[in-house]
Amino acid sequence: MIICSVTCADNLHEAKVMARMTKYHMPYARIVICLVERSMHPAVLNVPWFDEVILAKELGIPDFETNLLKYNLLEAVTSIKPAFFRFLFDRNPDELNIVFMDTDVIPYAPFDDLLFALEYHNILLSPNLLGPCGEPWSYFWVGVFCTGFLALRRSEETMRFLEWWGQRLYSHGYLHAPYLFVDQKWMDLAPAYFDITVWKHPGYNVAYWNLHEPSRKIISARDGRYWLEQGLPFVCFHYSGLSGALQFHLEACIPDHENSLYELLRLFKEELVVMGEEEFSQIPWSYDYHIDGTPITTEERYSYRG
C-alpha cells in the first residue's frame, strides 16, 4: 500500500508528523510526498519517514507552471491530486492500493478495514457526515465528501475517474468561485458517473465538523489504541481547523476534558513544534513569485483564469 500526500515547504512539519505516525501504525506502508515547490527543499532529504519525495512539476501535468499561475497555494496543492494518483499508479505497476491523506490527517490505528474494503471496491470516498444534521448549509458549499482522505484500487474504473477529476481540476480547481470548493465539490457528481463506494466507517476521517455525531466519539482507550461505540477502532483524526474551529467544536461537542481526544490534540500540537513548525511555517511559497523573484499579484492570478 502507498500512502501519499501533497504539501508545500511551509507545511513540512505537519507532513513529518503524519508520516511518522503512519509508519508507526503501518510500517509496511510506503509514504510518498508530492512537494509543490520549484525545487526540492533540503529539509525533505533527511526525513526518515518519507520513502520518496516528488516535485509537482515532475507529474507530467501539461504546461504545469503556466497553468499554476491562476491558482493560489491551497488551490494549487489540491488541484494536483488526480495527477499524483495517476503518476503513482504508473510508476508502481505492482501496487494495487493507494490512499491519499492530507498532512493533517493522523493515523491512530492500521487501516485494516479499509484495505479489506479495497479488495472489493475501486473508489472509496469519505463523507463529511454520516447522518443528517440540523444546519447543513455549509455542506452545500464544501460538498458531501472530504477529499482530504480517499482510497483507490487500481482498475479501469479508477483510471476513468482520475481522468475526469483531473480534467476539472486542471481548469476549475478554485476556492472562491460559484459552486466550487477547490477539488472537493466535484465529488458530489462522482457517484452518478462512477462506481463509487461511500466509506461510512465512523473511525476514519473524524474531524471537527462531525464531532457532534455520537458514533465518532472515543469511548475507551486500551493498549495504546482508541475505540468507538460497538467496538469499532478510532483510526484517524483530521486536525483541520487547528487554529480555531477545532477547539471550538471540541468544547461544544465533547465538554468532558477527560476524553482522550483532548490529550491527542495536545500531543499533536507538541509534535508539530518538535518537527520544526516555527521554522517551516515562515517559508514563502516559491510559486508565489515569478522566476525573476517578483511577486505574483492577485490581479495577475485572476487574469490567468481568463
From TrEMBL:
Gene3D superfamilies per UniProt: Spore Coat Polysaccharide Biosynthesis Protein SpsA, Chain A (3.90.550.10)
Protein name in the entry: Glycosyl transferase
Family annotation (InterPro entries): Nucleotide-diphossugar_trans (IPR029044)
Protein's organism: Paenibacillus stellifer
